[in-house]
Recover the amino acids of this structure.
């Protein structure tokens, strides 16, 4: 099997680059290029695995590992992988990956056994009888995750990952085994069919790689990303590799000199330090090329330099020495020691202008910080000399997963997936409460996100915010080090516009949940009316039983859920009808009855389109009850609606009926055309060619070189309007065309 530890530095699948300099006092070593992939070594034997475990845990339970090995080998006997190898090589490889992270005996036994219940005759009860309840529970957790065959369908994928996070919140070691399982599968993915390769690579890039990063296992994240990159974009990766080798040939001497310069500066300052260099993975380089839009040769962190010092105070001393020697690049300094990441990551990052003007990224940390930076969650679980390693910086990410699953438990599956991705891909900024508490937030976060990060109740009640003592809009983007004060008011509720303002998954999910709860009853009432009209168009009745049956057919819990989704436009009336009467559902070519063009009116109620805004099917509308006129239908953005504020009893929620509407909806166009022979005739012909009828025409201004006129055109819907206006705009003799709305035509207020 491939050695995961040997691939944590440098380009995935290539040997790690040699340090860019020796330890203090040693001879300088030349910088080396990443080598081509080495052939896989011999398969790991039981004795190899036990020997590896004993290097960090001399008190390891060897009999347990031998029993797990023998049991799994017996169960998988005769099974083969797609590559033709014995299937048992896979659980052995997974166990080795975890042993390289110095994991405990129970996790290693689980790795050996993780496929036995799923793929062999072994049972969960048999595992528990043989290995005890702890290992049995871990194997069961991994088995359940393995059974979740992730589909390309977004909803199924979201549901699967909701279950994944729910399961892993109980025991994080399930996640570690699953990540190691995915890593080995990605290392051997070439034996799979091409479509399966693409599917697995996309899942890896979207979920598993960022999950590993969130766990602090940066080496695994980088390798997973690069392995997926090789499958999804092989040409792009090959291009990066070619350019990487070329640049390395050109800058080899410069890199060695920069490493020597850093070492010399620290030695002169009396700071004992280990200076090493590393090359970024091809995917990381490619991503920076895309986001920064810079030439390959100008990227500052294709090569980075890492400085390991004894203590935290030495970190700042080293930083001072580096900044005294070279100019720091503005905006490229981050202190993750005083403000650590939520996964426990601590380090100082800075970029300086080094020898010959080359931009150089330098990371400064202690050995203890480095262990967490490299191993992440494994630093929390790992052993050293037979004892659990006590690293004070190690953080248990189970808390993060538990918090996420708790706050998103009631959300929609697709919403959950979106929130998970937002949480995992965040690039953090740190803001302060008035009492000095640090609130970590993703880059681009707003005061809304800050409020919800404190508490959901605070977020719901937010009416404003102050940043560094100055009142700011809620859409303001927060920056590192700002002090944020949230202003709340009793009775305040989340606004729909906040969804577009918020950045964090927590805030978005809480806002959506609150809006759903607030609007649910209104949506149910509107959905009832939509369903009634849709069924009546087919000569049917929207009975409770019919709605329950339609809900079941659409995979919804009950009729109320169906009606709520129908009223909120998450579900169409056509889809509801088609679920019960697919042969009777309205066909695309059929026209909507003009009497039933508007949905949401009381049975028998009359309506008319407001002449001030002339709403069209396809636009959001609202009704205003008017004495002697029934319900006047306005576009939602009509200025005339301001006159009815505070008269809630007159407002009616309305929707246009789905389907093709007849061309009877008049809209006035404001045209400016050239004053020339035949121009007006060509304009009229052009409108007719778009299947639109001119019902009226009047000139508002006549000049020697141009005419301005108002043209009333009968249209089907807003899409029809756009087609007509696009055709007119393309005509060379038309200098201006716009939709004309006259507030003076507004209906009476009573």
């Amino acid at each position: 099997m491939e050695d995961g530890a040997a691939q944590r530095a440098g380009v995935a699948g290539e040997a790690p680059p040699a340090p860019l300099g020796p330890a203090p006092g040693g001879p300088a070593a030349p910088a080396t290029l990443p080598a081509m992939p080495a052939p896989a070594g011999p398969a790991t034997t039981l004795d190899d695995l036990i020997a590896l475990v004993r290097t960090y845990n001399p008190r390891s339970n060897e009999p347990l590992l031998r029993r797990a090995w023998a049991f799994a080998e017996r169960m998988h006997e005769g099974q083969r992988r797609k590559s033709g190898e014995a299937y048992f090589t896979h659980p052995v490889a997974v166990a080795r990956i975890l042993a390289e992270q110095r994991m405990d005996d129970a996790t290693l036994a689980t790795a050996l056994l993780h496929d036995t219940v799923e793929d062999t005759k072994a049972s969960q009860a048999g595992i528990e009888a043989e290995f005890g309840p702890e290992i049995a529970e871990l194997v069961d957790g991994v088995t359940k995750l393995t059974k979740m065959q992730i589909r390309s369908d977004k909803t199924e994928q979201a549901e699967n990952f909701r279950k994944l996070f729910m399961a892993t919140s109980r025991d994080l070691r399930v996640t570690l085994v699953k990540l190691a399982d995915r890593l080995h599968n990605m290392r051997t993915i070439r034996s799979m069919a091409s479509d399966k390769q693409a599917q697995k690579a996309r899942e890896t890039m979207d979920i598993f790689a960022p999950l590993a990063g969130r766990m602090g296992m940066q080496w695994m994240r980088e390798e997973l990303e690069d392995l997926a990159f090789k499958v999804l974009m092989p040409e792009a990766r090959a291009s990066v590799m070619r350019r990487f080798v070329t640049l390395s040939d050109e800058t080899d001497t410069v890199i060695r000199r920069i490493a020597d310069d850093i070492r010399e500066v620290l030695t002169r300052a009396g700071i004992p330090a280990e200076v090493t260099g590393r090359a970024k993975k091809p995917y990381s380089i490619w991503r920076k090329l895309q986001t920064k839009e810079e030439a390959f040769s100008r990227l500052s962190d294709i090569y980075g330099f890492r400085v390991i010092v004894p203590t935290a105070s030495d970190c700042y001393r080293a930083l001072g020495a580096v900044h005294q020697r070279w100019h720091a690049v503005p905006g490229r300094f981050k202190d993750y020691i005083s403000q650590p990441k939520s996964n426990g990551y601590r380090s100082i990052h800075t970029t300086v202008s080094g020898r010959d003007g080359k931009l150089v990224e330098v990371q400064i940390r202690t050995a203890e910080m480095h262990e967490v930076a490299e191993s992440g969650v494994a630093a929390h679980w790992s052993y050293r000399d037979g004892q659990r390693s006590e690293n004070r910086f190690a953080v248990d990410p189970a808390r993060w997963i538990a918090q996420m699953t708790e706050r998103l438990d009631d959300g929609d599956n697709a919403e959950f997936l979106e929130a998970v991705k937002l949480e995992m891909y965040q690039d953090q900024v740190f803001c302060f409460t008035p009492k000095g508490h640090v609130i970590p937030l993703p880059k681009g976060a707003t005061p809304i996100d800050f409020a919800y990060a404190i508490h959901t109740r605070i977020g719901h009640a937010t009416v404003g915010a102050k940043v560094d003592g100055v009142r700011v809009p809620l859409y303001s983007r927060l920056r590192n080090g700002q002090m944020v004060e949230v202003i709340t008011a009793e009775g305040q509720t989340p606004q729909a516009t906040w969804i577009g303002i918020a950045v964090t998954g927590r805030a978005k999910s809480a806002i959506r949940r609150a809006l759903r709860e607030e609007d649910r009853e209104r949506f149910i009432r509107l959905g009832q009316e939509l369903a009634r009209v849709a069924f009546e168009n087919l000569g049917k009745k929207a009975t409770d039983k019919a709605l329950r049956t339609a809900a079941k057919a659409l995979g919804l819990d009950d009729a109320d859920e169906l009606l709520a989704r129908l009223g909120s436009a998450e579900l169409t009336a056509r889809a509801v009808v088609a679920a019960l009467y697919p042969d009777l559902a309205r066909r695309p070519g059929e026209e909507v009855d003009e009497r039933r063009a508007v949905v949401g009116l009381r049975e028998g109620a009359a309506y008319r389109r407001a002449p001030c805004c002339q709403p069209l099917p396809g636009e959001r509308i609202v009704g205003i009850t008017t004495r002697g006129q029934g319900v006047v239908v306005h576009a939602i953005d009509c200025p005339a609606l301001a006159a009815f504020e505070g008269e809630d009893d007159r407002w009616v929620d309305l929707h246009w009926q789905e389907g093709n509407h007849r061309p009877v909806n008049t809209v006035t166009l404001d045209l400016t055309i050239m004053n020339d022979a035949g121009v007006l005739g060509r304009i009229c012909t052009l409108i007719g060619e778009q299947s639109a009828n001119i019902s009226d025409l009047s000139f508002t201004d006549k000049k020697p070189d141009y005419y301005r006129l108002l043209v009333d055109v009968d249209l089907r819907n807003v899409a029809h309007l756009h087609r007509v206006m696009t055709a007119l705009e393309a005509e060379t003799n038309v200098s201006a065309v716009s939709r004309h709305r006259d507030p003076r035509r507004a209906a009476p207020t009573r």
Summary: The two ends are 82 Å apart (CA to CA). The chain has five domains: 42-232, 236-388, 426-503, 504-586, 665-745.
